UniProtKB/TrEMBL annotation:
InterPro entries documented for this protein: TrfA
Protein name: TrfA protein
Superkingdom, taxonomy of origin: Bacteria
Amino acid sequence: MSQEAETAPRSLAARLESIRRSSLPKQPPENLPHQLFLPGLSELYRAIPNHIARSSLFAPVARGSKRMHKATVLFSRKDAVITFWGEQLDETQADVWMQLMYEAVKVPLGEPVPINRAKLLRAIGRQTGNYEYQWLHRTMEALTFAMLIAQVTKQGKLKFEVGRSESLHMIDKFAFDPGRECYTVSVDPRWRHLFSNREFALIDWHKRLQIRKGQDMARALQRLVATSNEAVQRYSLVWLKELLQYFSPMRKFRASLLAAMRELERVEVIAAGRIEKSSKGEEQAVWQRL
């Protein structure tokens, strides 16, 4: 009898606790479709998270055989740690990814988006044809395989982390319909964390398409310029060389950097680009953002 008297209240308490928990508002899963609003995004601009633009995830590397990353901590600012798996991505692949994100944010992130492959190529300033279609498909495969963990801090404290407990890819998945010549692409809704609090750069797409062929360093610098609103921007040459994954001697890097700054001046992204000594006697690139 004593045992029954003790069991009954406990059972009732457990039922009441179960009812209480079921009445609490449920938090939506992270991977449910989520509408992403990016102020300033239009046909004239493409968006890229600042922490991605300030890292070596995309870099002006040579075509052909590329470095394969396996849990590589990419070069970036101290407020972000990006661990990456996949082939080193280049500036042409950055163009594809930014265009895919431009299309993807028209619907809630996570929902499939149909994209005609010819229109996609034309949107990034490329020709259409068998070679280009094959290149685009390889790029789609590379972006789908590419996986990262992003840890972002603010004043030394973790702001958010994404990609560790559940994999995060540059694009979540794609399917190609040869009959319609159309890709269907899905983007992981958790990408919204990297775009949150206006932590993204708007890339002037018309000016980017004007940058001459073979000037990938200029394209990479355009992304970097857009991450800061400072009128005069300064970057250490040592820092830039690592960011841009340039492994040739510094004298060659200086020449390539000057050529890239001249190109950005031509398309009116920057003005007065130059290399000079800092107050500490270190070489730095200086330019004025237009």
